[in-house]
Structure formats: structure tokens, C-alpha cells
């Protein structure tokens, strides 16, 4: 490729780190690129809860517009922020190898281990998160706790936790670890199933840009691309939105595909879950339908009623 590719990215520290990773990986294939910084709607309004400002595409729409107008050649996103239905004219060009998918709790010292599990003696503790999914799973486990909204980039949110009287706040491990900001006062929430595609980085480009797609394909990690596809299929078939208490995780280990998914009511009181295990060498068409089939299973068990209640609540 003779031209310099323009990589669109949000201007937060984490987003720039991710875009720089893509830039470095392209450079390893002798492909030159430069970063173009773009502020998204989600970065401008740091107060309103995500579900109130229409979370679908809140971090991607501005980059989509820049892509379609030709201002940039490709855009780099945290994959969990990307709507399951991409804008017309935009396609997935690559998915990088996944980092940690785990959620963690950054806490204020009230937590301690008991019988191998982290616990807190304060039954009315306050936990911060802007994620409907995290809120529902947390209330399912700790129904007496109160949830506060937490918005902003990683550094802003960490500072808010330090300045607050909260007992803790939930973060994605990958985001903090990538920019080396994970505090010592944190622990993994191994019981919390992640958002679809959490920990993965997606590159998108214009559908007709054959040379850009060819360049990005060099960075694609096949196993991560498959697993995140199944997770996003599960999300889309159940409801299609990412501001919903729906979680999914697909992993390929020891030549086995393990898929887990769940859906919660908004208050965390209702929960339906599914698990599928298949040999990784299963016929591709059967393997590719795993996420969709798992979602249909839950819909048959009553997930449609939970989904309808979520829609009536305005999410």
C-alpha cells in the first residue's frame, strides 16, 4: 500500500492506546498510518446515564460519520461499544486478539475475603457503574446494595471513586490494564459474565475500500473474531441493544468451544442462563449458529417476557 491510512479514534487515553496498537501492528506489515482524533457524543456528555442518551452507537456514531465522509480510512473501537448492526456502508475489517474479558471491583477497603470469596459487612453498600448489565448482576448477588451512576473516561472514573464515599465501582479489567492504571485495591468479579465482545478491539472501514480491508485483515485474530461474533449474535437475537442486562462469553480452549450467556431483569431478581459446549472442529455452519441458537433457547424459556419488560422501561 502506497498511501498513509488515517486511523480514526476517540481522544481518551484508552482509545488512543488501542488505536496506537493498531498503528503499530500495521507498521509491522510495512503499512504506514496516522491517528485522527475525534470526540464522540459519549465523551462530550459525561453526566447523563448511558441508557438515557441512547447508548446504541453513542461512542461510534461520530467516527462512523467521519469514515463515510472519507475523513478517515478506518476506525478503532472497543468492540463491546459497537452496535450489533453496523451503519450502512461500514463493515468489520478485523478483530484483534482479545485481552481480559473480566470485570473488576475497585474498592475502598471495606471488602475482605471470607471462605475464598470477597465480601463486605456493610449490607447497604453503594456501588458505582453506568452499565445496566453490571447493575443487574450485582443486585442479583447483593440485593440490598445501592447503585450509583458513574460516567467518564477511565481516569475520570477512577478519580470519582477516590473522591466518593462509595464502597467500590465496577470497571473492565482490560481497560485499566491496557493503560497500566489498575489499582492495587481491586479484585476480579469471576462470577460476573461480561458484555458481548468485552476485551476485544474491532477495526471497521468503508465497505468499498478493498485495499483498507486487505490491510486490516492482516491483523485479524480468527478465534477472537469467531467468539465475539457468537456473543454478538446472542445479544442481537435476544434484543439487539447493548444497554441491556444481557451477557455472553464464548471461549475456545483445548479444542472445545464453550459458550455461556444470560439475561437478567433490570432489578436483578429474574435470571435465565444457558451454556453450550461443542468440539471446536464442529461443522462451521453449526458452530457459527451457536450464539443465535442459545438466544432462541432462552427466548423459549421466557426471556421474551424479560425483554418486553426492559423495552417498556425505556431501555
TrEMBL record:
CDD domains associated with the record? PBP2_PBGD_2
- What Pfam families does the record tag this protein with? Porphobil_deam (PF01379), Porphobil_deamC (PF03900)
Q: Which reaction does it catalyse?
A: 4 porphobilinogen + H2O = hydroxymethylbilane + 4 NH4(+)
Q: Pathway it belongs to? A: Porphyrin-containing compound metabolism; protoporphyrin-IX biosynthesis; coproporphyrinogen-III from 5-aminolevulinate: step 2/4
Porphobilinogen deaminase C-terminal domain span:
226-285
Identify which cofactors the protein needs according to its UniProt entry.
dipyrromethane
Which principal EC class is assigned to this enzyme? transferase
Biological function? Tetrapolymerization of the monopyrrole PBG into the hydroxymethylbilane pre-uroporphyrinogen in several discrete steps.
Q: Which NCBIfam families match?
A: hemC
Q: What is this protein called?
A: Hydroxymethylbilane synthase
What are the top taxonomic ranks of the organism?
Bacteria, Pseudomonadati, Bacteroidota, Chitinophagia, Chitinophagales
Q: Which gene encodes it?
A: hemC
